[in-house]
Amino acid sequence: MKEYQNLTIKQWAAEDRPREKFLKKGISALSDAELIAILLATGTKNLSAVDLAKNILASADNNLHLLGKKNVTDLKKISGIGEAKAISIIAALEIGKRRKPDEIEQKKVTSSNVVFELFQPLLGDLPHEEFWVLYLSRSNQIKDKEKISLGGTSGTVIDVKIILKYAIEKLASGLILVHNHPSGNVQPSDNDLKITEKIKNAGLLMDIATLDHIIIGDTKYYSFADEGIL
pLDDT tens digits, residue range 51-65? Predict the structure, then answer.
């Protein structure tokens, strides 16, 4: 990109303006900063939208994953970002998170990585723990997923009766348990091991198999099945 310091986007060459560049070359031709600049619509008195977008990225170490963890208050600390622009950025990132799970929602579960790809966008950025259950058919086709509980930074309360109630209502033959560790450490705790065993034993009474328990971190995961625990 040519140097456009102290120029507004309207003063740039047409081929370098983010919207025009998108229309001419496609969305993949835009940098992260240019994508965010489109969301911002305008810059400030002293910064173009792209320069402002670069400042936003810099606040997250130029990492979109870290940017996704910021809330409105965090973004408003950046000069030139008010509440409306902060909300636009967060909403756009949230749409991106939700799109990927929708794309693979109807897939058959063939490995722990399929489950990780489904839940990482939902859980990887959260500052608190959430416990979900993936309900499967006898052929391991995804029937549904349910959020069972929401907790704090170090744990959440699990009701086994609720998990099995949903399984019966959905006529599920198998379960995959999923929760996140906000710390990023995906090693299971003693409580993780105990609740997995409890759910497994309760399910066996109704011929509902607990196939795996996946712990989600920022960019990695731990699978009980892969590690031979289930």
Answer: 888 888 899 888 777
Domains and CATH numbers, the chain: 9-100 (1.10.150), 108-223 (3.40.140.10)
Question: Quick one: tokens of 220?
Answer: 């990695």
Q: Distance from first CA to last CA of the chain, Å, rounded?
A: 53
Whether this model's pTM surpasses 0.85: no
Each residue's pLDDT tens digit, 144-157: 899 999 876 556 77
DSSP 8-class letter at 141: B
CA 47 – CA 56 distance, rounded (Å): 12
The closest alpha carbon to 85, from 123, 151, 40, belongs to 40
Query: If you ran DSSP here, which 8-state letter would residue 57 be given?
Result: H
Q: Using only C-alpha atoms, what is the Rg of the chain?
A: 22
Cα angle, residue 225 at apex, residues 213 and 129 outer, rounded to 5°: 20
Mean pLDDT over residues 106-133, rounded? 88
The pair of structure tokens assigned to 21 is 């560049």
CB-based contacts of 142: which residues, under 8 Å, 6+ apart?
A: 105, 106, 107, 108, 109, 118, 134, 135, 136
112 in Cβ contact with 176 (< 8 Å): no
